[in-house]
Amino acid sequence: MFDKxxxxxxxxxxxxxxxxxxxxxxxxxxxxxxxxxxxxxxxxVSLDELKAGWDGLTRNKEKLSSL
Length: 67
Prior knowledge:
It contains 5 helices and 2 strands, in the order αβαααβα. The chain is mainly alpha-helical.
């Protein structure tokens, strides 16, 4: 999933990549979620940041294994 979202293939998700293809409910809090995951405030999220922070953002633990 991460590789498909990383459209520019830089090994990070920018905000546009992070929100692309999400449902309406997810999009309501996308900026807050992105900022929470971006622990080093680089304006992009690495796979490690995504894995480390995903559990706190969702109740769907099964999706983490597909990252």
